[in-house]
Write a structure and sequence with these properties.
With 51 residues, the protein is mainly alpha-helical. It has a domain of 29 residues. It has 2 helices and no strands.
């Protein structure tokens, strides 16, 4: 392995997308086990908090 130089914005984008990938995997595993799917959308969460 070597050194790579990338802008911070690309690192942040990678972290956000990687987290989304894992949330999707967890959601899929839960559905396979028979559990109802849950929304993991941040805007949905904010609306639910303001009810």
């Amino acid at each position: 392995m070597g050194t790579i130089h990338v802008p911070y914005s690309e690192i942040v984008q990678h972290v956000v997308n990687h987290g989304t990938y894992h949330r999707g995997n967890i959601s899929a595993m839960l559905r396979q086990l028979g559990h109802a799917g849950a929304s993991h959308d941040y805007i949905y969460f904010l609306f639910e908090q303001n009810r």
